[in-house]
Design brief:
The complex is a heterotrimer of chains A (about 100), B (about 625) and C (about 170). Helices cover about 75% and strands about 0% of the residues of chain A. With about 100 residues, chain A is mainly α. Chain A is elongated and about 55 Å long. The chains are: A mainly alpha (about 100), B mainly alpha (about 625), C mainly alpha (about 170). The interface between A and C is large, with 70 and 83 residues.
Chain lengths: ~100, ~625, ~170
């Protein structure tokens, strides 16, 4: 346990902003979804790390991570169902083509 | 006497029944149902009158008034609350009898008169509504309940005048009646509010028990040189003047003759139009503390009486003649109230005279209208020119109409003589000027009534080649006969014993000097009318030509309607409403339009933000988050 | 897991390098199936991080749900929606540079905040056993999570049904 906490946090920071970069530069919706998973994963790490280093006698952070993972799974399933449905309608999954909701 | 509540409840139930079922009922069934309801109601009213007037008098010799039914409806403060109840005292019981009798007669009469009309059921529903409202008005325990029913009679009058709602003139007349009386009722309402503000009560019994309290409460409060109490009572009288068609608020009544004739008999001759008289009589002890308002009442009444009598002399529509005669006769009652200066038995004679005349007038004027209805039914016209020589064809109508004419002209022994004599005596005692004035009006009354009578029944022998007038059916003649009988005997009722200004019995005795004068004047007027109109001749036309200006002015009712039109159209509409309408359209609406345009303009500019592209939104999110984070770091850490 | 401090350090750096490299590759590669594979490596390394923190249960959940479940879903949907060997389109170079700038700026802001903050020093303690986790998940007392647990299970059920409804052929 000699590795300081800040190392872990920097690690998750890099992972998170990699996700941000991916989310705003990719057109493919599956790629955007992968970016989201990266960001979620970074947040999970943060939960666990703060729990481990700052509140070692408790386990709230870890349990939040568990819930976050479960909810991420649910979210991914729905998102993928929607993406497949869109693919059936317009035969591609580029986010730029989906602007029916504008003004 | 708790059953008195049914006198109100029955007509209301009839109104709901007939009004809701409407055309589901056969016309005949609806008519008979309504008439039966009214019959029961009349019987109850007679029973009430019998029990009320035969009860023992108290120590002062006064018949004690009763409140057999009372519920609190709205409570404002500890003292100020609106009740709904039934208040029985001599005048309200007398009114109950008058209203139910006339209403029953009209119900029976309408079975024949309205036979085959479209909307027969609706007609009976409205009649019931009117009866309920009018009965509620007279038994009101407090001035606010009276106001509520006052408006209800206004509404039912509106509905009944506009009964033939496909006829534009009827619609216009109903609107006119409603708007004019509504305008007057505004004064009434303000008067009520001022009065209750100072007296802390709406209750008639409390108000009349200690009327001087108003003066002491409102002492010092004056407006335009008159005390506030005077203003309140004058404004209340304004409401009464509107309902009772006093000059200059009379303009609606002649036009109200567009309604069915039985309705005119019930509402615009016998009951609703005397509501103003009843209102003043009801608050009479209060009026006594403000003599200047009583003087105002006298003046308004006297002017109206003369004005209406002159106009009635030249009208050619028989219902219009009767309408102006009604205005004139109600003005008689108003004058009588005005000259009764206090609640002393003798100086307050006018009060009793007014109520007596109200009673007798209701009967013979209803009779006149119903007779006119029978005539119109027979000749299908309102114009005198289409009539003449009808006495041979309609004997019953002829005789009953003659009795009514004699009564209104003041010929003994018919009822009108007794009541009019009391009024003239009361006026003469107060002021000789008004006494002579009213005697002249009484003479005019006799003249125009007999002009009407001769023009209808004598004048010429009708050429009956195309259409023979025929006597009315039994449903129409029976009420005529009944009312004629009442008119013959009503004068002998010991009215003063039952109704007087302070409740003590007053023995009516004829003042022979006044009575003789008025009889002589009336007989002269009748002889003049006989000379002019007995046989067809050129004399009336010649007279009309000789006094062309006056005749035309009187025929056009002295241009009062034109003055109203000028004031409303030119002054109110042109000078006030138009600028306000312009202000509303350009300034108020313009402000709203400006808001709309600015919103539209801004949204057109910023709608590009809603691009529908997720990544654009995320960009904004990231930039915003970074800004907030940077600011937080700069200023908080 | 009692490891020597040096070995622990080495393993951490290994995992860190894998995570950083694979994260960046995952968002920059143009082949989507490769991106999914890089994501798998990231997820597995994350599980390794959890093991290092002595959160063995969390680590196994990470592997089972993320690496096992979600990634399989991804692969299926990628195979359904794209042709083999196809490259995904990217945005223009200008947009990518802007994105990079935004990401680096964000990272810089966060890093500044992290490094200037004074973290409290806490004594390390004994880690709760898997027994405690089980009790916390289905208990109803303070710091116990039966209600969220049930809510998540209902959510998962709803999401199963919803996914079927959305994705089925009409």
């Amino acid at each position: 346990m000699e590795t300081p906490m800040i190392y872990y946090i920097v690690l998750s920071l890099v992972m998170f902003f990699a996700g941000v970069y991916g989310f705003i530069t990719r057109k493919n919706m599956l790629m955007m979804l992968i970016s989201i998973e990266l960001m979620l994963n970074a947040v999970d790490i943060n939960f666990a790390v703060f729990n481990r280093f700052l509140f070692p006698g408790q386990m709230e952070g870890m349990i939040f991570s568990i819930f976050a993972i479960a909810i991420a799974a649910a979210e991914t399933a729905i998102a993928i169902a929607i993406i497949i449905n869109i693919y059936r309608h317009i035969s591609n999954i580029d986010a730029d083509n989906l602007d029916d909701m504008k003004y | 006497m708790e059953y008195t509540v049914f006198i109100l409840a029955l007509p209301l139930a009839m109104f709901l029944l007939l009004g809701l079922l409407d055309s589901k009922l056969k016309p005949r069934v609806a008519g008979i149902l309504g008439t039966m309801g009214m019959t029961v109601c009349t019987a109850l009213a007679y029973l009430t009158a019998y029990q009320f007037f035969t009860q023992p008098r108290n120590a002062e010799g006064v018949i004690p008034s009763q409140v057999p039914f009372n519920v609190e409806w709205l409570r404002f403060t500890e003292h100020l609350h609106i009740d709904l109840g039934i208040y029985l005292d001599p005048i309200s019981v007398m009114m109950l009898v008058v209203i139910t009798t006339v209403s029953l007669m009209v119900h029976i009469y309408s079975l024949g008169y309205m036979h085959g009309e479209k909307g027969f059921q609706r007609y009976y529903a409205f009649l019931s509504l009117f009866s309920m409202s009018m009965l509620g008005l007279v038994v009101a325990t407090n001035i606010f309940q009276m106001y509520i029913f006052w408006e209800l009679v206004g509404v039912s009058s509106f509905l009944l005048i506009g009964f033939y709602y496909t006829k534009p003139s009827a619609v216009a007349a109903s609107k006119k009646a409603f708007i004019v009386t509504r305008f007057a009722d505004l004064g009434f309402l303000i008067g009520i509010l001022i009065l209750s503000f100072f007296t802390k009560t709406f209750d008639f019994a409390t108000l009349t028990a200690n009327p001087t309290a108003i003066i002491s409460e409102s002492a010092g409060a004056t407006f335009l040189g008159c005390s506030v109490a005077s203003w309140a009572l004058a404004l209340i009288f304004m409401g009464g003047a509107g309902k009772s068609a006093m000059f200059p608020l009379h303009i609606w009544l002649p036009d109200a003759m567009e309604g069915p004739t039985p309705v005119s008999a019930l509402i615009h001759a016998a009951t609703m139009v005397v509501a103003g008289v009843y209102l003043v009589a009801r608050l009479f002890p209060v009026y006594c503390v403000t003599p200047e308002v009583l003087d105002l009442i006298t003046t308004v009444g006297a002017i109206t009486a003369l004005y209406a009598a002159i106009v009635a002399c030249v009208q050619t529509d028989i219902k219009r003649v009767l309408a102006f005669s009604t205005i004139s006769q109600i003005a008689f009652m108003i004058v009588a109230l005005g000259v009764a200066s206090d609640t002393n038995l003798h100086t307050g004679l006018g009060y009793m005279a007014s109520m007596f005349h109200l009673f007798t007038h209701a009967m013979f004027k209803a009779l006149l209208f119903l007779g006119a209805g029978a005539i119109i039914h027979a000749v299908h016209s309102n114009e005198m020119a289409d009539m003449g020589g009808l006495r041979k064809y309609m004997p019953i109508t002829h005789i009953t109409f003659l009795i009514a004419c004699l009564a209104i002209a003041g010929i003994p022994p018919f009822s009108g003589f007794f009541s009019k004599d009391e009024i003239l005596t009361a006026v003469m005692e107060k002021s000789t000027f008004w006494g002579v004035w009213m005697t002249v009006v009484a003479g005019l009354t006799a003249f125009y009534m007999f002009r009407l009578y001769f023009r209808i029944f004598w004048w010429k022998d009708t050429d009956c080649s195309h259409h023979t007038p025929h006597e009315a059916p039994a449903t129409m003649t029976l009420p005529l006969i009944f009312l004629a009988l009442v008119t013959c005997v009503a004068g002998f009722i010991p009215f003063g014993e039952l109704v007087s200004v302070n409740g003590e019995p007053y023995h009516i005795h004829l003042n022979w000097s006044v009575a003789t004068t008025s009889i002589i004047v009336a007989v002269c007027a009748i002889l003049l009318a006989t000379w002019l109109y007995m046989k067809e001749n050129k004399k009336p036309t010649a007279m009309a030509n000789a006094t062309r200006t006056l005749h035309t002015a009187a025929y056009r009712r002295f241009y009062i309607d034109e003055i109203y039109l000028f004031v409303t159209h030119k002054i109110i509409f042109g000078l006030i409403s138009r600028p306000i309408a312009w202000f509303d359209r350009h300034i108020i609406d313009g402000t709203m339009d400006m808001f709309a345009h600015v919103t539209q303009w801004v949204s057109a500019r910023i709608k590009g933000l809603q691009s529908g592209s997720i990544q654009a939104y995320v960009w904004i999110l990231i930039v915003g988050t970074l800004l907030i984070a940077t600011l937080t770091i700069c200023y908080c850490l | 897991m009692e490891l020597l401090p040096l070995a622990q350090q080495a393993i951490f750096y290994l995992l860190a390098i894998v995570i950083v490299v694979c994260s960046i590759l995952a968002v920059t590669t143009r082949r989507i199936l490769r991106a999914a594979t890089y994501l798998l490596f990231v997820l597995l390394s994350t599980a390794g991080i959890y093991f290092m923190l002595d959160y063995t249960f969390l680590g196994s959940v990470q592997i089972a749900v993320y690496a096992g479940g979600i990634l399989v879903l991804f692969v299926f949907s990628i195979l359904l929606t794209s042709k083999p060997g196809e490259c995904t389109e990217e945005k223009s170079i200008k947009q990518r540079i802007l994105g990079l700038v935004a990401a680096i700026a964000g990272a810089a802001v966060c890093a500044y905040a992290l490094f200037t903050y004074k973290w409290p020093e806490i004594e390390t303690q004994e880690i709760q056993s898997i027994n405690d986790i089980g009790h916390a998940l289905i208990g109803m007392d303070k710091f116990q999570y039966l209600l969220p647990f049930e809510a998540v299970s209902v959510l998962l059920l709803a999401c199963i049904i919803g996914a079927i409804m959305i994705a089925r052929k009409r």
